[in-house]
Write a structure and sequence with these properties.
This protein has 157 residues and is an alpha/beta fold. It has one domain. The protein is 36% helix and 18% strand. It has six helices and nine strands. The chain has a three-stranded antiparallel β-sheet, with no helix packed on it. Helix 2 packs antiparallel against helix 3. The longest helix is centred in the middle third of the chain and has 16 residues. It is elongated and about 55 Å long. The protein starts with a helix and ends in a 7-residue tail after the last helix. About 8% of the residues have low confidence.
Length: 157
């Protein structure tokens, strides 16, 4: 999601004339606000984890995300059933902190698509059968977080 936002900004400032910017996720993803109540979401989560069990902090973060960002599922972003911190702790999957891409998704300047089935010269076929003309594809894969190795959270489920 961050890459699609950066490409949108490049289109504005560097006049690359990127006609359509699309993003897709292979898996479900938590999108959280970058900040809440003047604090970073990470700082807020750490502060809450000192006082509440992890499952409750997850619920609080999800309520804040819904209040601040709205329902992101209506834009094609599917949330996992497991909370963001529990998912981070158990699977190492990091939630996405929104830095402005969601506004561009809402406005239609960045389009969420269901996924790529296959590539053709100058085109991609999506899993829903739709074919898009493309100039380039940026594959943002292979990210492995090391947070579980240094973040020790007591799971209170």
């Amino acid at each position: 999601m961050h890459i699609s936002f950066v490409l949108f900004i490049c289109n504005i400032f560097f006049f690359l004339f990127l006609s359509n910017i699309c993003v897709f996720f292979y898996d479900q993803v938590h999108v959280l606000p970058r900040e809440a109540f003047g604090k970073s979401t990470f700082e807020l989560a750490v502060m809450l984890m000192k006082r509440f069990p992890l499952w409750m902090v997850d619920k609080i973060l999800l309520v804040l995300a819904r209040l601040i960002l709205g329902n992101v599922e209506k834009y094609g972003l599917k949330r996992p059933s497991v909370g963001p911190l529990e998912l981070k702790h158990t699977a190492g999957k990091t939630p996405v902190l929104d830095i402005g891409a969601l506004e561009k998704i809402r406005s239609g300047k960045i389009k969420v698509v269901p996924g790529i089935r296959r590539f053709f010269p100058g085109k991609v076929e999506l899993v829903d059968g739709q074919v898009l003309q493309i100039d380039s594809v940026v594959l943002a894969t292979g990210y492995h977080s090391n947070v579980p190795s240094w973040l020790k959270v007591r799971l209170s489920l």
